[in-house]
Amino acid sequence: MIDKLAPYLPEAALMPCYELIKVHGVHLKIVNERKTRHGDYRLLPGGGHQITINASSNPYRFLITLIHEIAHLVAFVEHGRRIQPHGAEWKQCFRNLMVPFLHTEIFPDRLLRVVARHFKSPKASSSTDPDLDKALSEFDSWQASELFVSDVLIGELFLFRKDRLFKRGLLRRKRIECVEIPSGKRYLFQPNARVILAPKSDGNNT
After folding, report:
1. Which pLDDT tens digit goes with each residue over 43-65?
2. CATH number 3.30.2010 is the correct assignment for the domain at 2-137
């Protein structure tokens, strides 16, 4: 298991994570990246605990996701099925499990400050905290053409998930309103959504 984990975690987090996996009897699966989630926890039919995590070249994102899912396991064991998936019980478990990792031997100082702030009230996903997601993205593998939707100029066209064309609109509170081309439907994007600028052609911004 340690050899399986080593490519994905900060070195100083490897043994503490291994101990958590062992103590809680986790069956860990590392899979190719899924667009809709970073990880998930499920109770197996025989009573075992399975956690599935996306393979990631970003060790800090992998670590936070792993502890996020172990917190689901602990919250389930301690409080049962009736709790909200990301309610108060899960948040407390997540904070308690994460505290031992919040130091500069594991996180770079500039990232640690953002991570510590996030854990005052953890969200359902690191992607729904734009400040944390942007800080973590510094350590992701980026395609050269990728950028955040917040960096697209108003009126410019961009591709989302490679094949859906949108025109960037105005910021509406915390999200950016964009219009899908050609359907005309309006969608609200998190500012930290990754997109690719559409190739420019004559009249494509009209």
Report:
1. 888 888 999 999 888 999 999 99
2. yes
